[in-house]
Amino acid sequence: MLPIKKAESYTPGHNNSPRVLLVGYNGANNTGSESRLLSIIQDIRWALGPEVRLTIPTLNEEKLKRYVQKEKNLKIVPLPSIYFLSLRKLVKNHDFILLIEGSCYMDTWTSALLWAFLWATRCAHTFKKPCLAYAVDAGDLSPLNKFLVKKEASKSNLIITRNYKSAEILKSVGVTAPIKITADCALNFESHTLNGIVEHFSPHRGLAGMAVVNFYLWPVVLRPFGKKKDEYKWPYYFSHSKKREKLEKKLARSWAKQADRLVDIHHKNIALICMEDLDEGLAHQVLSYMKNKENAQIFSSKDLNASKMTGLLQNLDILITSRYHASILSLSHQVPQIAIGHDRRLEILYEELKMYPDYFFKYDDPDLWEKVENKVDEILENPAKTQRLLESGFENQYSRSLQNRSLLKSFLKGGK
User: Fold this and answer.
1) How confident is the model at residue 230 (pLDDT cuts 50, 70, 90)?
2) Are 63 and 214 in contact (CB under 8 A)?
3) Class of domain 14-186+399-414 as given by CATH
4) Tens of pLDDT, residues 109-158
5) Residues forming a β-bridge with 208
6) CATH of domain 206-397
């Protein structure tokens, strides 16, 4: 393994209190990003003490303030949509740069997010600031983005990937920065009790969770103008077409059919789980198509913080998920689950859990829902088989995740 590259120079902030910039998908009402951010703040304070000065840039300050409050040593800094100059200035004024978004080196969601991380890395290299990518993923990349990742990510002092495949992907595109392999830092996230979250459901039925994603919104594209309903935040717009609308409705009806089947055949209540508030549109469509609406409820990251959402996930009888962190946050309780994947993250996770391909299905598989039905029946008939796989998989993932703090401390202390 390559050694950690040291920055050519490092000058700490006044009073020897380091200034750490956390660059990620902050302030998006996204349970995964929220759980990661809160865990990472704890990790940094463990490594450097409570006096460390943290700065969290965000495109949406109000959403971020839902779960992170400004403190003496913690600042929230709004970023403009065209972020290059502002982000460059922030990098210049900090001692350490941490890339904390899990979906770091991929363009599945939007190239604009990837470019923000690469730009922060480039600026850190320019200003000779130590730069670390902390427990991140690599995935699908266009030819242009492969070139950019090779060029800019190689300037990192250290990249910690949360799985083995991501390290392979980075090396395959030519990244030369030192790479360490651990697991997701959200595996250490502490959950809230379930009290009051699902109290209206009948206690005589179990609870099945469906973490849905509208695959047909992505990728977000950069354009000067578009319809307001498709705007993520100017100038970024969701992909949209009549064909995508039809596919979205078909997806919603398919989820609704599975939900009704779980109610009628397996006597479950249904939790429609929105790990990001962007998932609400699809969840409401699913609910509208269900015949057993009284047995279903939408649970959104807009209303539940990451702690309460984790409590919900950990108390399910079965989980069908298209969200990576729904799987991660339920692992400690071995919640039987299957995944319907759109990008590489769930596929890679299930490979490491030794649940691929039996429990993982591609969203565009022509036999998808027949396979889902068969697997749901199999799991609910004999959940112990799946739970044994999950128990072994969690132990491996958790033990690897414990390495994150020591690597982070070594990096932060080594920059001095």
Assistant:
1) confident
2) no
3) alpha beta
4) 899 999 999 999 999 999 999 999 999 999 999 999 999 999 999 999 99
5) 270, 318
6) 3.40.50.2000
Task: Tell me the mean pLDDT in the region 257-266.
Answer: 98
CA distance 213 to 327: 14
Helices 31-48 + 306-313 axis angle, to 10: 110
pLDDT of residue 222: 85
* Residue-level pLDDT at 370: 98
320/336 Cα distance (integer angstroms): 9
Alpha helices in 107-149 (DSSP H): 111-126, 143-148
Is residue 250 a contact partner of residue 237, using CB atoms and an 8 Å limit? no
Q: What is the DSSP letter of 294?
A: G
Give me the amino acid identity at 354.
K
In sequence order, the 6+-apart residues with CB closer than 8 A to the CB of 304 are: 31, 197, 312
The token pair at 76 is 């929230």
d(CA 212, CA 230): 19
The bridge status of strand 19-23 relative to strand 53-58 is parallel
**Bridge-based pairing state of the strands 206-211 and 337-341:** unpaired
Strand order in the sheet with 158-161: 74-78, 53-58, 19-23, 96-99, 131-136, 158-161, 179-181
Residue 143's identity, in one-letter code, is P
Bridge partners, 22 (sequence order): 98
pLDDT tens, 37-69? Answer: 999 999 999 999 999 999 999 999 999 999 998
Q: Which residues pair with 57 in a beta bridge?
A: 77
Q: Which residues have C-beta within 8 Å of that of residue 263, sequence separation ≥ 6?
A: 269, 270, 292, 295, 296
Taking only the tens place, the pLDDT of each residue in 72-99 is 999 999 999 999 999 999 999 999 999 9
User: Which segments within 47-166 are labelled E, that is strand?
Assistant: 53-58, 74-78, 96-99, 131-136, 158-161
Fold identical between 14-186+399-414 and 206-397? yes
Both tokens of 301, joined, read 């990251």
Q: What is the crossing angle of helices 111-126 and 84-92, to 10°?
A: 40
Locate the domains of the chain by residue range: 14-186+399-414, 206-397
| Residue 168 clears pLDDT 60, i.e. is over it | yes
- pTM, rounded to two decimals: 0.93
CB atoms within 10 A of CB 301: 28
Six-digit token string for 7? 């920055």
